[in-house]
Specification:
Elements: H1 3-12, H2 15-29, E1 42-44, H3 46-64, H4 67-72, E2 92-101, E3 107-115, H5 123-135, H6 150-162, E4 170-174, H7 183-193, E5 196-199, E6 204-206, E7 209-214, E8 217-221, E9 223-226, H8 230-236, E10 251-253, H9 258-261, E11 278-280, E12 294-298, E13 308-309, H10 313-317, E14 327-331, E15 339-341, E16 344-356, E17 360-370, E18 387-389, E19 391-393
Parallel strand pairs: 1-19, 4-5, 4-9, 9-10
Antiparallel strand pairs: 2-3, 2-16, 6-7, 7-8, 11-14, 12-13, 12-14, 15-16, 16-17, 17-18
Length: 395
Protein backbone atom coordinates (compact mmCIF):
# COMPACT_ATOMS: atom_id res chain seq x y z
CA UNK A 1 0.00 0.00 0.00
CA UNK A 2 3.10 2.23 0.12
CA UNK A 3 3.97 1.92 -3.56
CA UNK A 4 7.66 2.83 -3.30
CA UNK A 5 8.34 0.23 -0.62
CA UNK A 6 6.19 -2.34 -2.40
CA UNK A 7 8.02 -1.91 -5.69
CA UNK A 8 11.43 -2.01 -4.05
CA UNK A 9 10.56 -5.18 -2.15
CA UNK A 10 9.25 -6.99 -5.22
CA UNK A 11 12.41 -6.11 -7.17
CA UNK A 12 14.80 -7.48 -4.55
CA UNK A 13 12.81 -10.55 -3.51
CA UNK A 14 14.33 -13.93 -4.35
CA UNK A 15 13.24 -17.52 -3.63
CA UNK A 16 16.51 -18.01 -1.74
CA UNK A 17 15.70 -15.19 0.67
CA UNK A 18 12.26 -16.65 1.27
CA UNK A 19 13.75 -20.07 2.03
CA UNK A 20 16.14 -18.38 4.44
CA UNK A 21 13.23 -16.63 6.14
CA UNK A 22 11.44 -19.94 6.72
CA UNK A 23 14.59 -21.61 8.03
CA UNK A 24 15.37 -18.77 10.42
CA UNK A 25 11.81 -18.81 11.75
CA UNK A 26 11.92 -22.55 12.46
CA UNK A 27 15.29 -22.19 14.17
CA UNK A 28 14.20 -19.21 16.25
CA UNK A 29 10.94 -20.80 17.35
CA UNK A 30 12.43 -24.19 18.10
CA UNK A 31 9.72 -25.89 16.05
CA UNK A 32 8.59 -26.00 12.45
CA UNK A 33 6.10 -23.25 11.59
CA UNK A 34 3.32 -25.41 10.18
CA UNK A 35 1.05 -22.70 8.81
CA UNK A 36 1.90 -20.89 5.60
CA UNK A 37 4.17 -17.88 6.04
CA UNK A 38 3.69 -15.34 3.29
CA UNK A 39 6.61 -14.39 1.08
CA UNK A 40 6.14 -10.75 1.99
CA UNK A 41 5.13 -8.37 4.73
CA UNK A 42 2.89 -5.44 3.82
CA UNK A 43 3.65 -1.74 4.07
CA UNK A 44 0.84 0.29 5.61
CA UNK A 45 0.47 4.08 5.46
CA UNK A 46 0.69 5.55 8.95
CA UNK A 47 -2.77 7.19 8.84
CA UNK A 48 -4.42 3.89 7.89
CA UNK A 49 -2.66 2.02 10.70
CA UNK A 50 -3.64 4.67 13.25
CA UNK A 51 -7.25 4.58 12.01
CA UNK A 52 -7.38 0.81 12.61
CA UNK A 53 -5.77 1.08 16.04
CA UNK A 54 -8.17 3.80 17.15
CA UNK A 55 -11.23 2.15 15.64
CA UNK A 56 -10.47 -1.07 17.49
CA UNK A 57 -10.06 0.81 20.74
CA UNK A 58 -13.32 2.72 20.25
CA UNK A 59 -15.25 -0.44 19.43
CA UNK A 60 -14.04 -2.35 22.47
CA UNK A 61 -14.57 0.54 24.86
CA UNK A 62 -18.06 1.04 23.41
CA UNK A 63 -18.95 -2.57 24.20
CA UNK A 64 -17.46 -2.72 27.70
CA UNK A 65 -18.89 0.69 28.58
CA UNK A 66 -22.42 -0.26 27.55
CA UNK A 67 -24.37 -1.83 30.47
CA UNK A 68 -27.07 -3.06 28.08
CA UNK A 69 -24.50 -4.90 26.00
CA UNK A 70 -22.79 -6.39 29.04
CA UNK A 71 -26.17 -7.68 30.23
CA UNK A 72 -27.00 -9.07 26.79
CA UNK A 73 -23.63 -10.79 26.46
CA UNK A 74 -24.34 -12.84 29.60
CA UNK A 75 -26.42 -15.06 27.33
CA UNK A 76 -23.40 -15.66 25.06
CA UNK A 77 -21.50 -17.53 27.80
CA UNK A 78 -22.58 -21.18 28.07
CA UNK A 79 -22.98 -22.16 31.73
CA UNK A 80 -20.63 -25.11 31.28
CA UNK A 81 -17.84 -22.71 30.25
CA UNK A 82 -18.59 -19.80 32.61
CA UNK A 83 -15.51 -19.24 34.76
CA UNK A 84 -15.52 -17.40 38.07
CA UNK A 85 -13.63 -14.21 38.89
CA UNK A 86 -14.29 -12.45 35.61
CA UNK A 87 -12.34 -9.23 34.94
CA UNK A 88 -14.13 -6.03 33.93
CA UNK A 89 -12.52 -6.19 30.46
CA UNK A 90 -10.38 -8.59 28.43
CA UNK A 91 -6.65 -8.56 29.10
CA UNK A 92 -5.79 -9.64 25.54
CA UNK A 93 -7.86 -8.78 22.49
CA UNK A 94 -7.66 -8.73 18.71
CA UNK A 95 -9.68 -6.78 16.17
CA UNK A 96 -9.70 -7.82 12.49
CA UNK A 97 -10.10 -5.29 9.68
CA UNK A 98 -10.49 -6.12 6.01
CA UNK A 99 -8.96 -3.53 3.70
CA UNK A 100 -11.51 -2.21 1.22
CA UNK A 101 -11.60 0.91 -0.95
CA UNK A 102 -13.60 4.06 -0.47
CA UNK A 103 -15.55 5.62 -3.36
CA UNK A 104 -12.49 7.79 -3.90
CA UNK A 105 -10.27 4.72 -4.23
CA UNK A 106 -8.51 5.09 -0.88
CA UNK A 107 -7.81 2.08 1.36
CA UNK A 108 -10.22 1.93 4.31
CA UNK A 109 -10.67 -0.54 7.21
CA UNK A 110 -13.87 -2.54 7.61
CA UNK A 111 -14.39 -4.55 10.77
CA UNK A 112 -14.61 -8.30 10.16
CA UNK A 113 -14.64 -9.61 13.70
CA UNK A 114 -13.04 -9.28 17.13
CA UNK A 115 -12.08 -11.58 19.97
CA UNK A 116 -11.28 -11.14 23.65
CA UNK A 117 -8.75 -13.96 23.49
CA UNK A 118 -4.96 -14.12 23.09
CA UNK A 119 -3.32 -15.04 19.82
CA UNK A 120 0.27 -14.96 18.50
CA UNK A 121 1.60 -12.31 20.90
CA UNK A 122 5.05 -13.92 21.05
CA UNK A 123 5.36 -15.18 17.48
CA UNK A 124 4.49 -11.95 15.68
CA UNK A 125 7.46 -9.93 17.00
CA UNK A 126 9.76 -12.74 15.90
CA UNK A 127 8.19 -12.80 12.44
CA UNK A 128 8.60 -9.05 12.07
CA UNK A 129 12.23 -9.18 13.14
CA UNK A 130 13.01 -11.98 10.71
CA UNK A 131 11.27 -10.19 7.84
CA UNK A 132 13.40 -7.14 8.64
CA UNK A 133 16.66 -9.06 8.86
CA UNK A 134 16.23 -11.31 5.81
CA UNK A 135 14.88 -8.64 3.49
CA UNK A 136 16.97 -5.69 4.76
CA UNK A 137 13.90 -3.56 5.43
CA UNK A 138 14.42 0.14 6.23
CA UNK A 139 15.15 0.46 9.96
CA UNK A 140 12.79 3.42 10.39
CA UNK A 141 9.69 1.31 9.63
CA UNK A 142 7.58 0.68 12.74
CA UNK A 143 6.48 -2.78 13.86
CA UNK A 144 5.28 -1.99 17.40
CA UNK A 145 2.51 0.49 18.13
CA UNK A 146 2.95 3.64 20.18
CA UNK A 147 6.66 4.01 19.51
CA UNK A 148 7.56 0.95 21.61
CA UNK A 149 10.66 -1.10 20.93
CA UNK A 150 11.12 -4.81 21.39
CA UNK A 151 12.37 -4.59 24.98
CA UNK A 152 9.46 -2.40 26.06
CA UNK A 153 6.99 -4.74 24.39
CA UNK A 154 8.59 -7.77 26.01
CA UNK A 155 8.27 -6.22 29.48
CA UNK A 156 4.62 -5.33 28.86
CA UNK A 157 3.73 -8.80 27.58
CA UNK A 158 5.54 -10.56 30.43
CA UNK A 159 3.78 -8.35 32.96
CA UNK A 160 0.38 -9.14 31.43
CA UNK A 161 1.02 -12.88 31.45
CA UNK A 162 2.63 -13.11 34.89
CA UNK A 163 0.70 -10.48 36.85
CA UNK A 164 2.45 -10.43 40.23
CA UNK A 165 3.01 -14.20 40.32
CA UNK A 166 6.28 -16.10 40.15
CA UNK A 167 6.90 -17.58 36.69
CA UNK A 168 7.08 -21.09 38.15
CA UNK A 169 3.45 -20.76 39.29
CA UNK A 170 2.14 -19.47 35.93
CA UNK A 171 1.41 -21.78 33.01
CA UNK A 172 0.38 -21.57 29.38
CA UNK A 173 -2.55 -23.99 29.09
CA UNK A 174 -3.66 -25.67 25.86
CA UNK A 175 -5.02 -29.00 24.66
CA UNK A 176 -2.15 -31.19 23.40
CA UNK A 177 0.07 -28.14 22.82
CA UNK A 178 2.84 -30.07 21.07
CA UNK A 179 0.37 -30.98 18.31
CA UNK A 180 -1.00 -27.48 17.71
CA UNK A 181 -0.01 -25.33 14.73
CA UNK A 182 0.51 -22.51 17.21
CA UNK A 183 3.31 -24.43 18.99
CA UNK A 184 5.95 -21.92 17.75
CA UNK A 185 4.10 -19.16 19.63
CA UNK A 186 3.82 -21.34 22.74
CA UNK A 187 7.55 -22.07 22.76
CA UNK A 188 8.45 -18.41 22.30
CA UNK A 189 6.00 -17.45 25.05
CA UNK A 190 7.51 -20.01 27.41
CA UNK A 191 11.00 -18.64 26.85
CA UNK A 192 9.98 -14.99 27.02
CA UNK A 193 7.94 -15.36 30.22
CA UNK A 194 9.79 -18.26 31.85
CA UNK A 195 6.60 -20.31 32.19
CA UNK A 196 5.72 -23.96 31.59
CA UNK A 197 3.54 -25.08 28.68
CA UNK A 198 1.05 -27.54 30.15
CA UNK A 199 -1.45 -29.86 28.52
CA UNK A 200 -4.86 -29.36 30.11
CA UNK A 201 -5.11 -33.16 30.31
CA UNK A 202 -2.10 -33.24 32.68
CA UNK A 203 -3.26 -30.65 35.22
CA UNK A 204 -3.90 -32.16 38.64
CA UNK A 205 -6.66 -30.92 40.92
CA UNK A 206 -6.59 -31.17 44.70
CA UNK A 207 -9.67 -29.61 46.24
CA UNK A 208 -9.74 -26.01 44.94
CA UNK A 209 -6.10 -25.88 43.81
CA UNK A 210 -4.52 -26.88 40.49
CA UNK A 211 -1.01 -28.29 40.00
CA UNK A 212 1.32 -29.35 37.24
CA UNK A 213 4.13 -31.84 37.48
CA UNK A 214 7.75 -30.75 37.17
CA UNK A 215 9.76 -33.93 37.38
CA UNK A 216 8.65 -35.59 40.59
CA UNK A 217 7.38 -32.33 42.13
CA UNK A 218 3.85 -30.94 42.01
CA UNK A 219 3.96 -27.19 41.37
CA UNK A 220 0.91 -25.11 42.39
CA UNK A 221 -0.70 -23.11 39.60
CA UNK A 222 -1.55 -19.55 40.63
CA UNK A 223 -2.24 -18.07 37.19
CA UNK A 224 -3.16 -19.47 33.76
CA UNK A 225 -2.39 -17.88 30.39
CA UNK A 226 -5.31 -19.57 28.72
CA UNK A 227 -4.99 -20.70 25.10
CA UNK A 228 -7.76 -23.31 25.26
CA UNK A 229 -10.70 -22.59 22.96
CA UNK A 230 -13.67 -23.84 25.00
CA UNK A 231 -15.41 -25.68 22.17
CA UNK A 232 -12.14 -27.40 21.23
CA UNK A 233 -11.90 -28.67 24.78
CA UNK A 234 -15.35 -30.19 24.45
CA UNK A 235 -14.95 -31.51 20.91
CA UNK A 236 -11.53 -33.03 21.53
CA UNK A 237 -12.85 -35.33 24.22
CA UNK A 238 -9.93 -34.25 26.40
CA UNK A 239 -10.42 -35.50 29.94
CA UNK A 240 -9.41 -32.89 32.48
CA UNK A 241 -9.66 -32.99 36.25
CA UNK A 242 -11.44 -29.64 36.31
CA UNK A 243 -13.90 -27.62 34.25
CA UNK A 244 -13.72 -23.91 33.48
CA UNK A 245 -16.91 -23.45 35.51
CA UNK A 246 -15.49 -25.11 38.65
CA UNK A 247 -14.86 -23.24 41.90
CA UNK A 248 -11.08 -23.25 41.69
CA UNK A 249 -8.49 -20.94 43.20
CA UNK A 250 -6.66 -19.54 40.19
CA UNK A 251 -6.11 -16.26 38.31
CA UNK A 252 -6.62 -15.97 34.59
CA UNK A 253 -4.26 -14.11 32.26
CA UNK A 254 -7.04 -13.62 29.78
CA UNK A 255 -10.29 -14.59 31.47
CA UNK A 256 -12.14 -17.33 29.53
CA UNK A 257 -15.52 -15.55 29.63
CA UNK A 258 -14.23 -12.84 27.28
CA UNK A 259 -13.86 -15.42 24.52
CA UNK A 260 -17.66 -15.28 24.35
CA UNK A 261 -18.39 -11.71 25.46
CA UNK A 262 -16.13 -10.13 22.84
CA UNK A 263 -16.71 -12.18 19.71
CA UNK A 264 -18.94 -12.41 16.66
CA UNK A 265 -21.80 -12.08 19.17
CA UNK A 266 -20.69 -8.45 19.60
CA UNK A 267 -20.99 -7.43 15.96
CA UNK A 268 -24.75 -6.67 15.77
CA UNK A 269 -24.42 -4.48 18.88
CA UNK A 270 -21.67 -2.17 17.57
CA UNK A 271 -22.36 1.27 16.14
CA UNK A 272 -19.24 2.51 14.36
CA UNK A 273 -18.38 3.79 10.86
CA UNK A 274 -16.00 0.87 10.23
CA UNK A 275 -18.57 -1.82 11.05
CA UNK A 276 -20.61 -3.39 8.21
CA UNK A 277 -24.30 -3.97 8.80
CA UNK A 278 -24.73 -7.13 10.89
CA UNK A 279 -27.78 -8.97 12.25
CA UNK A 280 -28.52 -12.07 14.25
CA UNK A 281 -30.06 -14.59 11.92
CA UNK A 282 -33.21 -14.90 14.05
CA UNK A 283 -33.88 -11.14 14.07
CA UNK A 284 -35.09 -10.54 10.56
CA UNK A 285 -31.84 -10.66 8.64
CA UNK A 286 -32.82 -14.05 7.27
CA UNK A 287 -35.42 -12.21 5.23
CA UNK A 288 -32.85 -9.86 3.71
CA UNK A 289 -33.01 -9.50 -0.04
CA UNK A 290 -30.03 -10.69 -2.08
CA UNK A 291 -28.45 -13.08 0.44
CA UNK A 292 -25.42 -13.22 -1.85
CA UNK A 293 -24.46 -9.77 -0.54
CA UNK A 294 -23.96 -11.19 2.96
CA UNK A 295 -21.66 -13.53 4.87
CA UNK A 296 -23.23 -16.19 7.06
CA UNK A 297 -21.19 -16.90 10.20
CA UNK A 298 -21.65 -19.20 13.19
CA UNK A 299 -21.04 -17.21 16.37
CA UNK A 300 -18.26 -19.34 17.77
CA UNK A 301 -15.89 -20.83 15.23
CA UNK A 302 -12.23 -20.33 14.38
CA UNK A 303 -10.26 -20.27 11.12
CA UNK A 304 -13.36 -19.68 9.02
CA UNK A 305 -15.05 -22.92 10.02
CA UNK A 306 -18.70 -22.89 9.01
CA UNK A 307 -18.53 -19.48 7.32
CA UNK A 308 -20.39 -19.11 4.02
CA UNK A 309 -19.56 -16.14 1.80
CA UNK A 310 -22.52 -15.12 -0.36
CA UNK A 311 -24.81 -17.86 1.00
CA UNK A 312 -27.75 -19.07 -1.02
CA UNK A 313 -31.30 -18.82 0.26
CA UNK A 314 -31.14 -22.61 0.69
CA UNK A 315 -28.05 -22.25 2.94
CA UNK A 316 -29.95 -19.86 5.19
CA UNK A 317 -33.19 -21.82 5.18
CA UNK A 318 -31.28 -25.00 6.10
CA UNK A 319 -30.46 -23.62 9.55
CA UNK A 320 -33.19 -24.77 11.97
CA UNK A 321 -35.16 -21.86 13.50
CA UNK A 322 -34.18 -23.02 16.99
CA UNK A 323 -30.49 -22.49 16.14
CA UNK A 324 -30.68 -19.23 14.21
CA UNK A 325 -29.68 -17.22 17.26
CA UNK A 326 -26.30 -18.98 16.94
CA UNK A 327 -25.58 -17.29 13.56
CA UNK A 328 -25.11 -13.81 12.18
CA UNK A 329 -25.43 -12.32 8.72
CA UNK A 330 -22.85 -9.64 8.05
CA UNK A 331 -22.87 -7.41 4.97
CA UNK A 332 -20.08 -8.73 2.77
CA UNK A 333 -16.90 -6.68 2.72
CA UNK A 334 -15.36 -6.36 -0.73
CA UNK A 335 -11.68 -6.75 0.05
CA UNK A 336 -9.55 -4.80 -2.39
CA UNK A 337 -6.42 -6.34 -3.95
CA UNK A 338 -4.29 -3.57 -2.43
CA UNK A 339 -1.01 -5.51 -2.17
CA UNK A 340 0.69 -5.91 -5.53
CA UNK A 341 2.79 -9.09 -5.64
CA UNK A 342 4.46 -11.07 -8.42
CA UNK A 343 1.39 -13.36 -8.26
CA UNK A 344 -0.97 -10.43 -8.78
CA UNK A 345 -3.13 -8.18 -6.63
CA UNK A 346 -3.66 -9.67 -3.18
CA UNK A 347 -6.23 -8.93 -0.46
CA UNK A 348 -5.22 -8.08 3.10
CA UNK A 349 -6.80 -8.47 6.50
CA UNK A 350 -5.07 -6.71 9.40
CA UNK A 351 -5.54 -7.90 12.97
CA UNK A 352 -4.63 -5.31 15.58
CA UNK A 353 -3.48 -6.90 18.85
CA UNK A 354 -4.22 -5.18 22.16
CA UNK A 355 -3.12 -5.56 25.76
CA UNK A 356 -5.71 -3.96 28.02
CA UNK A 357 -4.61 -2.77 31.42
CA UNK A 358 -5.97 0.76 31.92
CA UNK A 359 -7.19 1.17 28.33
CA UNK A 360 -6.96 -1.05 25.25
CA UNK A 361 -3.35 -0.50 24.14
CA UNK A 362 -2.55 -1.49 20.54
CA UNK A 363 0.80 -3.24 20.52
CA UNK A 364 1.21 -5.36 17.37
CA UNK A 365 -0.47 -6.45 14.19
CA UNK A 366 -0.99 -9.75 12.43
CA UNK A 367 -1.76 -9.82 8.70
CA UNK A 368 -3.36 -12.43 6.49
CA UNK A 369 -2.96 -12.19 2.73
CA UNK A 370 -5.25 -14.06 0.37
CA UNK A 371 -6.63 -14.29 -3.12
CA UNK A 372 -9.24 -16.96 -2.35
CA UNK A 373 -12.88 -16.47 -1.40
CA UNK A 374 -11.97 -16.43 2.31
CA UNK A 375 -8.97 -15.01 4.16
CA UNK A 376 -8.02 -18.02 6.27
CA UNK A 377 -4.74 -19.75 5.48
CA UNK A 378 -6.57 -23.05 4.97
CA UNK A 379 -8.58 -21.47 2.15
CA UNK A 380 -5.45 -20.34 0.26
CA UNK A 381 -3.10 -23.24 0.88
CA UNK A 382 -2.42 -24.01 -2.81
CA UNK A 383 -1.33 -20.43 -3.64
CA UNK A 384 1.92 -18.48 -3.39
CA UNK A 385 2.28 -14.98 -1.96
CA UNK A 386 -0.53 -15.58 0.56
CA UNK A 387 -0.64 -16.63 4.21
CA UNK A 388 0.32 -15.27 7.60
CA UNK A 389 2.25 -12.03 7.49
CA UNK A 390 2.89 -8.76 9.31
CA UNK A 391 2.54 -5.08 8.61
CA UNK A 392 5.20 -2.40 8.80
CA UNK A 393 4.21 1.22 8.68
CA UNK A 394 5.53 4.73 8.53
CA UNK A 395 5.37 6.91 11.62
Amino acid sequence: MISELRSAFNRQWTPERYRRLLGRLDERCGAHVGFRVCETPIFIPGPLMRAMEESGREIMEQLVGNPAYMAASESAIPDRFRARGEDSHPLFAAVDFGIALTAAGEPAPRLIELQGFPTLFAYQPALCQEYGAVYDLPPDLAQYAGGMDGEEYGRLFRSAVLGNRAPENVILMEIDPLEQKTLPDFLLTGRLCGIAIVNVRDIIRKKRRLYYRKGATLIPIDRIYNRVIPEDLENSGARAQFALSDDIEVEWAGHPNWFFRMSKFSLPHIVHPSVPETHFLDEGAARADNPGEWVLKPLFSFAGSGVKVSPSRADIDAIPPARRHEYILQRRVDYAPVVETPAGGTKAEVRILYIWTDRPLPVLNLVRLARGAQMGVDHNRTMDWVGGSAGFWTA
